[in-house]
Each structure stands twice: as C-alpha cells, then as structure tokens.
Batch of 3 targets.
Target 1
Amino acid sequence: MKQLVFGHKNPDTDAIVAAKAYSYLLNQLGYETEAVALGEPNDETNFVLEHFSEPTPRVITSASSETEEVVLVDHNEAQQSVDDIKDVRVTHVIDHHRIANFVTALPLYYHAEPVGCTSTIIFKEFQENNVEIPAKLAGLMLSAIISDTLLFKSPTTTDVDIAIGKKLAEIAEVDYEKYGLAMLKAGTNLATKTAEELVTSDAKSFEMGGKTVRVDQVNTVDLDEVFAREDELRAAIEAQNKDNGYDLFLLMVTNILDSNTRLLTLGSGQEVVEKAFDQKLVDDKMDLPGIVSRKKQVVPPLEEAFA
Amino acid sequence: MKQLVFGHKNPDTDAIVAAKAYSYLLNQLGYETEAVALGEPNDETNFVLEHFSEPTPRVITSASSETEEVVLVDHNEAQQSVDDIKDVRVTHVIDHHRIANFVTALPLYYHAEPVGCTSTIIFKEFQENNVEIPAKLAGLMLSAIISDTLLFKSPTTTDVDIAIGKKLAEIAEVDYEKYGLAMLKAGTNLATKTAEELVTSDAKSFEMGGKTVRVDQVNTVDLDEVFAREDELRAAIEAQNKDNGYDLFLLMVTNILDSNTRLLTLGSGQEVVEKAFDQKLVDDKMDLPGIVSRKKQVVPPLEEAFA
C-alpha cells in the first residue's frame, strides 16, 4: 500500500514542494509513496509549478481511507494536518517548526532543524543518502527556500538556507535573484486585484483622538508597480472615506523584500501622521524605511501622536 | 552558559554514553556543553567506563538551577527526563523512541530514527558533520550498541546498528564479540550475588492444580557459570520450599545472548513439568531452546499440564 506524503493545510510553496521532494527521495530509497496536498496551491505555488512544468498534487481530505502510513513534511501539529491523522501511523517527519500536539505509538524517523525552510533539510537528506537531485526538483526546492526566506531576507533565514539555496540554483541552472523576484511577485499578484480590493482586503479601523482611522496594508515586491496605479488607489480610498465615514485613511504599501513601507494617506489629520513619524508628507506620501508591522510599528506611534 | 546533555532517568549504558558522545560532538562544532546523568551508572555501565578509563558523569537532579538550555539523548518524554524539564529550553534531541509528552515553544534540532540504539544515530551525526570519532569514544559507543542490541541479537537490532557497531569496533580496535560478552556478563553480575539472592530476587508464586508453584528467573550470558554453583542453588531452593511451603520450584536460568533457558526444578510434581515441556528431566534439569519468557512461554504450558 502506498504511503502518502503531505505538508500542512492551507499549503504554501514549501508544503507542496517538500512533499514532492521527500516523496521522490523515499521512492529512490525503495519506499512506495505519493506526494499529495491538504489544499489547493496558492498563486505563488501555481507560478512555481507552471514554471517547472510540474503537475499540481492531488488534494486529499482523508488519509486513512487509502493508506495506513503517512509521512509529514513542514508540520507536525495535529490541527495543521489531515483531519484523520489519528487513524494512521506517521513513519517519517521532516520539519522546521516547534514540536507540539504530536504523539506516536512507535519509534519513527524524525528530522527537524531550526532553519528557514523544510526543503533545506530535505536537501541534506538527499546528500546523506547519496541521491542526486534532478534539475527540475532542484528548481522546485529552490522556490520553496525563496518563498520561506523571502529571497534570503526574512529574519528566519539561516546561513544553511542561503548556501543550500545557491547550490540548488546551480543544479537547476536558475538565476535565483531574477527568478525569485518574479516568483514572489506572482505570489503577491496585485495586478489581478482591483483598487477597491487592494484598499479593503486587509484594512482595519482604529479609534484615535475621537477620529476613525482606517489602516490598510498591501504587500508587494515592487513599490513602483503599485504606485503606478496611484490615481486609482486615491479614488478608491476617497470612496472608502466618504462611504464609511473614515476621517483618515493610511495605505501601507510594504515591500516584503527590503522591509520598507511607502505610506499614502488621505483625509483629515495628515499633520498627526507627520508628527507620528517625524517627517513631512510629500504629495500625501512618505517612505518609512524598516517599517513592516502595522500592529507594532504604525498603530502605536499614531496613537501616541493623536493622544 | 554551558548547555547540559543527558539521557533518561535510571540510566543504562546508551543513556550515559550517548550523552558523552553527543556532548563531545557539539563541543567540536563550537557549542559549550557538559554530559551529565540523571542517576548513577549500573554495573554494566561501570564496567564500560572502567574499561575505557572514562570518568563517571556528574549526576544532576535539576537542570534549571545551572542552565537555560539542555540537550536530550535516548529519551524525549517528560516523565523520563529531569524533574524541571519544563523550566528549560530543549535545543537538540537525539533519540530512537516514540515521541510522546514532548512539547517545545520554539523550533529545535531533532534527529530520531527507529534503530536499536541512540549511539548508532550519533555515529551518523559525526559523519554528517565530518568529525572524527576518537578511539576511546568509539569504544564507548560500541558498548552502548552492544548493550541495547544484546550483541546484535535483540529483535530491535537493525542492519544499521550492526554495520555501525562493526565500524566502531574497528576504530576502537576492540574484538567486539569477546569484549561484548565480558561487558554483558558484567551487567548480569551474578558472581557478586548469593545463591539465596539468585533464587529470590525475581521469583513469583502461582497456584496451579492446588499446588503452590514458585518460578524464578535469572538472566546470564553463561549458563555454565551459573550451574557451576548448582549445589549452592539446590540448597537455597530447598530452603525456600521448606521455609515457605512451596510445592514445586522452577529456576529458569536464561541465556540472554542465544535466547535459551536451562531449567532446574525441585519439589513434588516434576512429572507435570516433564508433561508441560514434553521432555524428561535429567538430574532435575532440562534445556528449553528458544524459551525466554516466563509469562508467555513457561507459565501457560505449566498451567495447562496441571489442569
């Protein structure tokens, strides 16, 4: 009976790719496994799978209906796994998260390391077992590392992720910086969204000094691409303010690659924004270097300035 | 601050040795660690430590009083670990058991495999990190593998344990069969026990067909060594029967290396023992090849024969 290999629910690129990579390795070692997924791939992962002409994995909602043994990648906690995880035996885990809510009845193979990406650990597994990584699979694994580490720039990135990412780029013959930017851009996928979607999908309201302040955040890999649509965005924000009675609107456009934010703010109280961040708005905009967190870096100084 | 590395409570040879071996490796990799123990070494481990002139590890009862970070070997379940395990952070685990009752707040290094001995996995860790194993440490690690696998004969032994055990024997320049026998013998350590201790320390009573049947079991690596004391043992058994009113006494002397038992039986009802095992007693003794379990292989046929 085939063993199933899968990553966590609501899968990201690493969850999909690590399952494919480890399933390939296990099959080379004599196991009979199939990589499956606990959900549909996101936009970024679809870009990756299309780029390397790799099929989308089959989505399962139950494991015990087709196998007795499973392999977990990129997760171990039961609530992140398949619903009937308790009804199957976990024989292998490859992961880079904390261990919690995980119990086995029997000894198993478990390889976890505190690195940025599961695919980094799977690269080591290939090495330890002297199995060659095909170019296409190397491209997929590189994509997972780029995704989890935001092109080696997230604070979770380790030297090992960088070294292994670069080795995979060589095997895959991929220009990882150029490819990585395109891939992360596909993940943010702002081009397909309307200006109204951009100013509403992650917006939250705050009461400050008697005013209703609306703060929205959009992640991108290219600030200029977003601000090329500035006129559209201004119109959408003004409609939001008018229709919903917001006094002040702040749109944070955050570049996830260099951890900087450009702010566009419209409404009454712009001088309070200037006070909060100690700089002048130019054409209703200001750059906030090093600022990425609405909760920790934007709302507190705003509240203080309004008080 | 030094990290502490330790195996489980009531330590066996692998728990003591794996802590020493992994602490050595971590220190070679730049960590600052100390191998400690959660209890005094047993007779077998003392033999090993003396043989390789290795100091006995310091015994601790609390970790948090001297460090914030610990490394677990040969166990993961909290109830087998130091009492204040919840007050420290586990950064690494090397183990060959199931995972249960184990939770971390942060990602960690975890390497478990379903093999016979933790020291087998630690050998792989040395290889993966390109660190040479000193001859003395190889001897200790070989001892742990011999202990956990009963010289490659226990049902938990894997091909990997055997291959790595033999490599360690080469590095240590040890004749593993000769040394292993001496080591396991030191663990059974029957020579230091009186005949009365041997016939009482693991004896259990059973009511069968209106008779009180006493069954004792002694583990050894050398049946002849035990039966060289047959006169003493007979006297001790007869005293037991007389003083306690046992009708029939069975002493199982079990060779843990080849999984055979020699039975010495005294009292009334010897013919039932002959019936139970379908062979004649010679001088009150019989050999029972393949029989090692009192509970599963001796008591049931006896009960049936008495019924």
Note: The two ends of chain A are 65 Å apart (CA to CA).
Target 2
Amino acid sequence: MPALKLYRLYISRDRKYARVLHNMLGFVPRNLSLYKLAFRHKSVAPQLKEGLKNSNERLEFLGDAVLGAIVGEMLFKKYPYRDEGFLTEMRSKIVNRNHLNQLARKIGIGDLMDYDSRMIHNPIKQGSLMGDAFEALVGAIYLDQGYVFTKEFILKRILKPHVDVDALEQTETNFKSKLIEWCQRHGKEVLFELMPNEEGARTKLFTVKVFVDNEECGTGQDFTKKNAEKTAAEHACALLGL
Amino acid sequence: MPALKLYRLYISRDRKYARVLHNMLGFVPRNLSLYKLAFRHKSVAPQLKEGLKNSNERLEFLGDAVLGAIVGEMLFKKYPYRDEGFLTEMRSKIVNRNHLNQLARKIGIGDLMDYDSRMIHNPIKQGSLMGDAFEALVGAIYLDQGYVFTKEFILKRILKPHVDVDALEQTETNFKSKLIEWCQRHGKEVLFELMPNEEGARTKLFTVKVFVDNEECGTGQDFTKKNAEKTAAEHACALLGL
C-alpha cells in the first residue's frame, strides 16, 4: 500500500472518516471534504453566501450528469440492437429517484448523512434525500478521481452487485399499487381525483391529481384515465422517495 | 505526424472523408464508420433489424449524455457560487435543440449530413436534424477517443470559439418573438390560441396552443396567459429547430 494511502487511513486527522469511506467505497479518497459535502443536506448546511448554502445540491447536479453518461454508455454497449427509446427508458429505470434511494440505502449512505433530524419521521420531507446524496457522491468521486475511475466504480461496485439490469428490463413499475401499499403501511389516506376536462378542448385529455393525507403529491395527464393515474402516482412516488 | 495519421489522411481508401473530418474537427479520427453513422439521419438509414434503423439516433442518445456531463462540469467550475438551479438553466441554454442546431451549422455539419433531400424545404420536418447530428457526433468522438479527449474537444473547439457563456447568462430567450419573426420571414401564419379553462378546476391554469399554418406546434400551461404563451412558443421553436 503506498505511503500516502497509509497516511490517509491511519495517521491523518481524518483517518476515521477515511476508513469509513474506504469500507463503503472500496478505495481511499483523496479529497475528503468533497465527500463530506456530498453527504450534507441543505437542512443543516451553512450559508456560503447570499442565496447559496454549502450543501450537496451542486455536487448532485454534477453527479446526475456524470451518472447519466456512465449508465447511458453501459446500456448503449449492452444493447447494440435496441433503439434510443428503449435505452432512455432503461436508463430512467436505473437512475430514477426511487431506484437511487434504494441504491443509496444498500451501500449505507444513511449512516454518513448529515441532515436535520426532524426530517427522519417525515417521509414526505425526507423524500429523495438518499438518492440525491448518492448522485452527489458520484459528483464527488468524479472530481476526486476523474471520469474513468468513476465509471469503473459505478460499473463494478454499484451496478454489478446491486442492479439486475436484465430483471429491470422485464419490469414495468406499477407506481399506483406501490403508492397505495406504502400509504396503507404508513396509515395515510391516498386519493386519486379526476379533474374536470377542459371545456371545448380539441383533445380529450384526462387530468388526475393524487393527494396523500390531503396534500397534493402529483399530477398526471393522458388520453386515458388509467395512464393519467399512473403518471400522477409516479410523480407522487418520486416525491415521497418510494 | 505519426505514420498511422499519415496513412489515414493520404493513403487509406477513406482518405478524402478523413481529411474532411480532420478539417472540421481538428483531429484525425480513428474509426470513420462511427462518424458516418453520426451523420446518417433515419430518413435514409438502412434497416438493421426489425424495428431498428442503422441511423444516428443511438449515438445521439449517448452524445446527449456525454455532452450534458461535460457542459455540466464546465459550469460547475466556472460558477462556484451559483446554485444548481442556475447551473441547470445555463446548461439548458447551451444544450437546447435550438442552440445545438446553430452550433452544428457553425461547424459545418450540414455538408456531411446524409438525409432524405425531400426534407430540405420543409423546416418542420427538418426540425432538429442538425442538433441531433451534433449530439451524435459527440457520441462518436467519445467512442472513438474517450472521455478526456471529448471534453478537451468540446471545451476548446466548440465552446471557446462558438459559445459566449457570459452573454448567454444575460439573455432570456424570447421564444415568442423569435417564432413570430421566423413565421413572417417564411410567409407562414402563426396563431396562439387560448384554450378554455378546466371547469371547476382548483387552480386557474391557462392553456395556450400555438399553430403554424394550422399545424399544432406546441402547448403551454401556466398561471398567467403570457407564460403559457411563452412555453408554447418555446416548444414550437424546439420543434421547428429555431
């Protein structure tokens, strides 16, 4: 093991944090402050300057883009005979908020997260906290180690052990039943409300809003009521981080 | 100049094409077939297998993702004190269809494009042909030369000479006047139509549709009529590739 790695893991002031990250990620990060930032939710972030908190949101922006490119290339190469519509759909199954929340939990991001503890028992507020932090982590790794390293990390350490891409190909996520089950489990009332049609509209579009405990959580619009409900439920699932 | 480069530019069977690309891109590509594919619109693409044409659409999917990551990082580093909302907006000003169409024309993609010539005089059909090919080109360069090279290429050869990021920061694109001007110049009739409100809807949303020569080109929905028109015009500009 090179001297610098040894130093970071066993001698430096931040050695404990470095070892935790080493266990989680499988490599020794260089710039620890990037990782600390990735796990800092805006609810506890200090003001950096007017209108900007020193939270993980900027890293999330970067990580989202890098993750999209990495997963996009993986799918492009894995499916040489599928069109771009299929590739787009598959990518969104992998990088959607719900799935990223699960991935983040699997690799144990929760233990490192820094956020206002009042959010813990409010799933609506907590929402996509974990998935956002996962994206921010990807941004941190990218800045710390570069694109090629980040790609290797995502492919070998995240996708290979945690994501069954072939199974995802078969699933069509049923967001409506997912939402209803979640509400039953958490004792919340869920309501799908069909909004009246536009009067004299040329197309017959259905608009459905979904309310969880009277709080509007999503809207969907489509040519069938069923599809409008589906979209509304999908939005609600994303909002609730399911 | 290394022997392989010389061979590609002056001896190989495809030397003419290699020299054209060299002039346009500033480097000698390795795998020319990737670039040919990037410039092949689906209107002239051969069937690869059922449901899939051998066109540039898959490369466009890949290039879109890679370009998003590269531009995202550039903005992340250029604006250390701006939040992710600003970064997202700036990126979309750079990589939106209209702007990519312009960029593609600037670097001369039109001369290399392979598409059904019946589309030439139909701007609605032509739409974002050039911008799509630009993204596909980014995908081709990425597969041919890797991420670091592609990033250098985009930053030095595209963004630096062709995009004034500071000026873009100031502009708020006025899509409505852009659309109207374009229609006047091309002798087309443009019509913004306010659709009737939803009866009994809780919120007072305005829906505006825009028609160019009686063809619906975009819809917008917002709480003010003006903003709904703006969104509708933006969609129409994207569709028309303005």
Note: The mean pLDDT of chain B is 88.
Target 3
Amino acid sequence: MQIAIALYERFTALDAIGPYQTLGGLPGADVVLVAEQAGPVRDDSGRLALVADKSFADVPRPDIVVVPGGPEQRDQTENEALLGWLRAADAHTTWTTSVCTGSLALAAAGLLDGREATSHWLALEELGRFGARSTGQRVVFDGKYVTAAGVSSGIDMGLALAGRIAGDETAQAIQLMTEYDPQPPYDAGSPEKAPAHLVERFRASVRA
Amino acid sequence: MQIAIALYERFTALDAIGPYQTLGGLPGADVVLVAEQAGPVRDDSGRLALVADKSFADVPRPDIVVVPGGPEQRDQTENEALLGWLRAADAHTTWTTSVCTGSLALAAAGLLDGREATSHWLALEELGRFGARSTGQRVVFDGKYVTAAGVSSGIDMGLALAGRIAGDETAQAIQLMTEYDPQPPYDAGSPEKAPAHLVERFRASVRA
C-alpha cells in the first residue's frame, strides 16, 4: 500500500505530518514523500525543509494520495506539475485525500466537482468557487475523496481513514501509540469557538 | 527568540512538528532545526527526512530548546553529541522542553533531577530511573522545564508554552490558524482510555 504525500514549496508542515504519522502506522504502509523534483522542499515559513525522496514521475500510481495545504492559494491552484500528477495518480488511487487548502489543489485539478469537501476555515468559500460543495466539517468522506479542515485536522483524518482501511482496532492502536488524547489549553480551535475579534482579524487579512 | 529543535537519527516526526507549528507562530520566533551535523536526518520509520539547517555547534545559545522523542531509548540516552549540546545550551535557555521520550534525553543529560516531568506513557518508568519525578500528565511545567507526553502532545505543549510566552490571545490565534479543534474518531489516546488488550500488547512488547 503505497501512500504518497505530495510536497511543494510553501506547504504547511503539520498538514503533511499529521497524516504521515497516523497513516504511516498502518500495517504494510509504504509512505513516500514526493514533489516535482526529488530533494528538499521548504515550508511556508522557510525555516523547515522536508526531503522529497522521489519525484512525481517516480511515483505514478500510489494507492493513497495526501495533499497538504499552504497559505498561498496559488501554490496549490496554479501548480501545474502538482495538478497534472494529481489527475493522473487519482485515476488509480483507492483514496485521494487532502488537509487544509490541499483541497483547493484537488478541486483545481477537477477532482472534487460537485463533491462534498472541506478545507481550512478561511478557504471554504474559495473551495466552493472551485466546484466542490464546501462543508464546515472537520473530516469529510465523499466516495474515495477524503478532505480535512485546517492544519491539525490531518491527524483526525488520518485516524479516521486508518479505521476505514484496517479496522477500528488498528486505528485505536495508532491513536494510543501517538498518545492522541488532545488536551488543548484553550478552546479556540474553530471560528465558532475562538474570540470573535480574532476571527474577524484573520478574515480581514484574507480580504485584504 | 531563537527556538532550536534538536534532531537525531530515528526521531519521531510529529514530536518535532507539533511544537514547530505552534511555537513557530509566535511573533519574533526564529525556529531552527539542528542536529549533530547539518543535513537530512531520518525519522524512526526511515521514510522521512527533515533537514537540519544548522549543526549543534552553529547554535550554541538558543532561547528555547525542543527535544523530540523516538522509539529507541538509547538514541536519546546514549547520544553524547545530543546530551552535551543540551547541557551547554540549557545553561542559557529561558525554556528547555521535550516531547515524548525526548524527556529521557533531558533526564540523561542531568537536567531533570528531582523535577516533575512526563514522557510517552510507555516510558514513564524509565524516566523515573533517570532521576525525574515522573507524572502521567500530558504537559508538565517545572520551572523552565516543560515536558510533554507522547507524540501528538507536543501540540498541546506548544500552545501552552505559547500562552506563557506571549499571552493567551496570541496562543488562541495560533490555535485558530492551525484549526486545532480536535475531533478524534476514537477515544483511545491514553492507556486509561484505550482497550485494555491493546495497552497490554504494547506493554508486553516493551518488556520483551
């Protein structure tokens, strides 16, 4: 079971690592980080590089695709190398997945037309403009397409997908070994729960 | 505010990325990944490499240190390059932190003697043998030493520490932008909550 996590310049690190750490715990999982070219790929802060061990061309038929997001929409939606690989790989996948604004890449590739999907809360409207039926849920399954909300939600997505693939007990074992018993010190993780002025500040920065 | 995340062969990826993504959102945060030598460092599965942009020698006086864990205890506790750097850096840090079995490195370096600390649930006894007062809590503050439980707990630790450093509102903004509103599909993230036979299976594998 080959699981390809697609990297591109300015991706968000935790978007990629949440599914990596959870899906990577599946028996038989052969995870590979891929990018247009093999080699280091910098994240959105420029302060971290993950190594893509293979190029897109090296990995034409993964069983599972994971696309992380990143804060600059055009990095996903105008990235022809990424979109072309996604379209070709998707023809053979059993699951095609995204975290955060990675769903904009799937949608821009034409893979989410009319499908229910999610994205970072600041990108939900944009996701709709690319043809998906945008929901505010944290993890959305629509057929073989699985999309997760912002950044950290890739952990929840990875566990949910692990359960679908290998059963509840295997997913629970992964949860136990990653000690995923969340105890956030605040309850501000969604626009419904966070202080309204913070939500508005971020919405205004996106509008600007 | 220089934040140094220490890498070593066979570290666990999410241990490093949880604090990276949360603490990296602090205003003025200058995060740097460091290792004995600059260059790619492989994780515990061998399937992922993060790039250490600097060597330990390049970063002698970070303000904050983060040590991730990894499944092979001796990778932390017998790693003299890591332990030596931790001791020297700790003399100047404002915060010295760990995730998962990274606390075994701090303890082996002599930095947690008699202090309250935590670790991955499977490593709590071992942490006690290295001189810390082991607790089962998810995030433990003892003076400037902050330790987190297994793997995913570094996200909670990063947010809690962000709040201490920059105030609640900044930490809430980080939580909102990382959309950390956890919705695990199972409630099996701790040995108290997971199915007993899974807990016993992992305990038996550690004993073996």
Note: Chain A is about 35% helix and 20% strand.
